[in-house]
């Protein structure tokens, strides 16, 4: 599909404005790429200054057979981003179209086949983004509850090569921006170190890597994902160093499949994105293809696991060890302890405790990408009892059992 669509895109000649219109009709639908407003954030993108908006402007001009104006617009892009290879490719084709028909996108360039395929893929990814209008009230099905401490959330749609940013307004997500993004050379579904794949999962962005530790390759900065997380380790997934980062100074954007597994965006985009990141608190879902649902549906889907979670908290506080242990599934394991070992520890602890108070806050719940029966729940726990007090940032994996009940299959924490 990709080759045929892009090839037909530039099947044009200067003698036929009809061909010009057909050639650019599809890509010119990307009229709003880069001209978005960041509602409620105090950040705005000026369409006249944004490179992607200028790309769209050029494509509109090609559609209208305004070759001279389109060339001027592309020149403006290259003045601001001399390293934008896709713009160079469009400019070359526009010039060549004045003298002879083009047989395919990129006719005017001697780019190696692999490189040209990458540029074609980038053009197609930008086209697909514009063709699929997502209603403003839709959110990714994976976000069930986002706590107020997470002012923003992010989701990467691998198939669309698009990173979406959401603002959290009183517990409801509102999409405020999206960016073209690159993933691993071998696609998604990371399983082992060195496989050049981007992991599918639910993660949290960590603190930026200090600039002095980065080479030019990572561009404007780098933010690690907490890969491998608890679910990855349960599945024996290996590897490390999965980051959200920029590009080298000789590059404006990379092909959709061009990294060693990291998520890569342009440097100007990263400078915008980093304003939305609170280390350890900003969730990022990486899905093969995002399922978009309305906010009310997302809330309904979360009720089962959140109800089970509240019962778990209440049973721990009441020191009802039998009911408390009912919340744990047969597949439970944590730090080398299976369900039997966990049960023995908890029975001993509950027997020695006279009273307990358990408070939770900043509860988040995410349906794990690629699954229908796994949920990641994170929260801050304040525990007081006759034995000891603790303040913990905790995480649990819940699995929907065959009987329709949610059960905990992992539980862990870090000191907060």
Describe the fold and architecture:
This protein is α+β, with helices and mostly antiparallel strands and 416 residues long. The chain folds into three domains: 2-131, no CATH class; 138-290, L,D-transpeptidase catalytic domain-like (Beta Barrel), CATH 2.40.440; 294-415, Nuclear Transport Factor 2, Chain: A. Helices cover 31% and strands 26% of the residues. The chain has eleven helices and 21 strands. The protein has helices spanning 2-9, 17-25, 51-63, 67-80, 85-96, 113-131, 230-234, 267-273, 295-317, 321-325, 339-352, and strands at residues 37-38, 43-44, 138-140, 143-145, 152-157, 162-169, 172-180, 183-184, 201-204, 222-224, 243-245, 257-259, 263-264, 283-287, 292-294, 333-334, 337-338, 356-367, 374-385, 389-400, 406-415. The strands form seven sheets. A five-stranded antiparallel sheet has the order 4-18-19-20-21, with helices on one face. The chain has a five-stranded mixed sheet with strand order 7-6-5-14-9. Helix 1 packs across helix 6 (113-131) and helix 4 (67-80) packs antiparallel against helix 5. The chain is elongated and about 85 Å long. Residues 1-49 have low confidence and may be disordered.
Label this structure with key terms:
single chain, 416 residues, alpha+beta, L,D-transpeptidase catalytic domain-like, 5-stranded antiparallel β-sheet, 31% helix, elongated
Largest sheet: 5 strands, antiparallel
| Classification by helices and strands | alpha+beta
Beta-strand share of residues: 25-35%
> Any idea of the CATH topology of the largest domain?
L,D-transpeptidase catalytic domain-like
Overall mean pLDDT? 85
Number of domains: 3
* C-alpha-based Rg, rounded: 25 Å
- Per CATH, which architecture of the largest domain? Beta Barrel
How widely separated are the two ends? 50 Å
Helix content: 25-40%
Helical stretch tally = 11
Shape: elongated
Level-1 CATH class name of the largest domain: Mainly Beta
According to DSSP, the number of beta strands is 21
User: CATH H level of the largest domain: which superfamily?
Assistant: L,D-transpeptidase catalytic domain-like
Side by side, the strands of the main sheet go 4-18-19-20-21
The low-confidence runs, each spanning 5 or more residues with pLDDT under 50, are 1-49
